[in-house]
Amino acid sequence: MPRQRHLRIITLAILLAAALSITLITLAQSQAQPRPFMTLKGEASLIDYYNVSGITALMLVIRAYLNNTPAPITVSLFAFTPTKIYTIGYYYGVGAVTINLANPLMMEVASAWNVAGLWPSLLAFIMYTSNETHTVRFMILTIPYDPGWIISKEHIAITASVNLTTVKPLPIPRNLTKSITMQTTNTKINTTDPYGYTYVGSCMGIAFHNHLQAYHTYLALAQLAGN
Known about the structure:
Layout: H1 2-32, E1 38-41, E2 45-51, E3 59-66, E4 69-70, E5 72-80, E6 85-94, E7 96-100, H2 104-112, E8 121-130, E9 135-144, H3 147-151, E10 156-163, E11 170-171, H4 174-184, E12 191-192, E13 207-208, H5 211-224
Parallel strand pairs: 3-10
Antiparallel strand pairs: 1-2, 2-10, 3-4, 3-7, 5-6, 5-8, 6-12, 8-9, 9-11, 9-13
Transmembrane segments: 48-66, 73-92, 112-129
Keywords: Membrane, Transmembrane, Transmembrane helix
């Protein structure tokens, strides 16, 4: 009888240890993978919004995939006020770029939107250039945000993922392929629009898929911004 009781105690202890282990594993996974408080889905894009205590201010991460593989991309990021367009910067990364939106220029942009409840959008031009095929894949993505997040320095991360496989490659001149990559790699340029360009409309995470038109829109927008 004492032996059976001893076995029962050992069995109970093992079951409790197993239950505790499962609980700890589940808790660790839930902490390591925070859930977004908002998600916007497009035809070839996904934008998630997270509350992240480990960052000091608003952050934007743009990820790009081609054939399920992280793709090297250049990102040209623009922001709008009711009367102007600003170049936030040019960024390059393999698979992803990380952009800190806690900067004086974005603070100026956010402060210009003094209408409660209004969400403007950042405009990201995402480009993948192939030197082998001399083609470019191009996508425009609008990324809505609350200006109050920047002003209040909220701990929020925005992640935007795009699937470039759905984008039709466009041929570009051979001498332009290398130039585009070199000019946009590791450069950040902030300028204001001297023409007072006005942005009209509401863009809730829309990716534009008329890629030739998108490419010419990017060139025109960069020219308007004074680049």
